[in-house]
Specification:
CATH topology: MetI-like fold
Oligomer: single chain
CATH superfamily: MetI-like
Order of helices and strands: HHHHHHHH
Number of strands: 0
Number of helices: 8
Largest sheet: none
Shape: elongated
Helix content: over 70%
Radius of gyration: 20 Å
Number of domains: 1
């Protein structure tokens, strides 16, 4: 029980920090792509296409294998692998609103580009990003558990749910509780975050409001 409780720190830390980093970098790059377009958009999006040629988990495993196992490297690997999703989501949101009349009015009164993006564009483009961030934390926890399971994440003797699954798999027939409870914790946490993401989507989407 104590290892399950302390292991939640590592899993949640990886999920929250990696998604926070990926969202900040992704929103910045996506805003540049969506607002300015042109060569900047082409160059950045071609880099994102290269990153998205591999599934996020495979890319995270490759990065972690190159950097070496450990908590910080696991966070960095998951952060990098999730940046393209935020870039594409932000770019699509910015493209949908950049021709709105209030942005033309802001340009007409000589608002700076930074102020237009920060004050006028991003607040109106954050709803889908918040939902993606919430669900991304759940995916990051699963990725962290998978990486710890194969020895690329949190290292023993530090507890982490995926590492606990890996350590207990040899005793699953005689002591099934060694893997059952850590698996249940991963399931409950991911399910809770997905339900939170669904609730936020319903709350933030005006089309779904009565």
């Amino acid at each position: 029980m104590s290892r399950l409780m302390i292991g939640s720190r590592a899993s949640l830390k990886i999920g929250l920090i990696s998604m926070a980093g990926a969202s900040v970098i992704g929103i910045m790059l996506g805003s540049i792509c969506g607002y300015f377009g042109g060569k900047a958009d082409t160059i950045i999006m071609r880099f994102m296409d290269v990153f998205q040629a591999l599934p996020p988990l495979i890319l995270a495993i490759a990065i972690s294998a190159a950097l070496g196992p450990g908590l910080n490297n696991c966070i960095l690997a998951i952060t990098i692998s999730n940046i393209p999703g935020f870039v594409r989501m932000t770019r699509a949101s910015v493209l949908s609103i950049r021709r709105m009349e209030y942005l033309e009015a802001a340009t007409a009164i000589n608002c700076s580009t930074t102020r237009i993006i920060v004050k006028h564009i991003l607040p109106n483009a954050l709803s889908p990003l918040i939902v993606q961030l919430t669900m991304g934390v759940a995916n990051a926890i699963i990725s962290a558990s998978a990486m710890s399971f194969i020895g690329l994440g949190v290292q023993p003797p530090n507890p982490e749910w995926g590492a606990m699954l890996s350590a207990g798999r040899s005793y699953i027939r005689n002591y099934p509780h060694m893997v059952t409870f850590s698996g249940i914790m991963i399931m409950i946490t991911v399910l809770s975050l997905n339900m939170l993401g669904d609730g936020l989507r319903d709350a933030l989407d005006p089309k779904l409001k009565n």
